[in-house]
Write the structure tokens for this entry.
Amino acid sequence: MDPTSNLPDHMSLQDDLDALRSNAPSRIAEAADLDALAGLQTEVLGKQSPIAAGRATLRELPDDERKRTGQAINEVAGELNALIGARRAELEAEEHAANLASDAVDVTLPGRAPKHGSVNIIQQVMDEVVDIFVAMGYAVATGPEAETEYYNFTALNFPQAHPARLAMDTLYLEYGDEPEEILLRTHTSPMQARYMEEHEPPVYLVVPGRVYRSDPLDPTHSPVFHQIEGLAVDTDITFGDLKGVLEHFAHEFLGTEAETKFIPHYFPFTEPSAEMHVRHQGEWLELLGSGMVHPAVLEAAGYDSDKLTGFAFGMGADRLAMVRHGITDMRDLFDPDVRILEQYR
């Protein structure tokens, strides 16, 4: 059997080449993308193409016919390669233009500012309250959160038998002989004594900060919360001055429609003492404690209680935030859930 019987003869090869020359250019021009063009190139010039089959027959042909056939095959292959190369360049240019268009930036559009976080609602309230008192001429001070028993209790006229001194109410770090007991401060009031020891009167001071008590975490209590202490010491300060300052604060913080009233109360470091309640959204709420500075507190700081008078007040920033925003569960103030925090941006 002739081993070349399965190879195309000269006439059938010429027919295939003519068909390629006739049909392939239009198919190449219509190739939609580079992948389609690559598939078409394999079909017309690859190992299974008439071009490859024709080249496989050349060694079986006589010399003169081999030359003519080889030249015809190369001409068709050259033409198709040129067409494919040109179409590839067109498709690559179109693809590049499409990529540039998709990545284009319209410089006339307004910028897109990145989304920033915000200060926690408690800090927002503390900053606002401090700003109100700074506008009235008050200075701002902070103090240590780990405090001595002396400044937390004794310098503020707490009697030795006062229940707040017990470990069931106060978190002690070092529980031993006085005055070396160290505790987590239960209020920001120790700065009253510390500040007066270091500054001559008159004193107008606010002290924001974190405080600690042995309380369970529930809708109205937390072992960690925040206070803003206020102190004013000068000559001829009266309870009327105290009421005027705190009523001004209430109107600035809650609005001019807020009503206030003072109810007698007891605090060891003030005498007389009172709670200030505010009528907000139709309901009376306790807002803060206040009173005239007890003479014993002035004397402990080295002030002359016969010549000086003063008032003090303390308010919970957490409670203020709850009143302002209608929050009923204190735990929401500490919740890291972004859905809650974003409500108070």
Observations:
- Confidence is low (pLDDT under 50) at residues 1-8.
- Residues 35 and 41 are 10 Å apart (CA to CA).
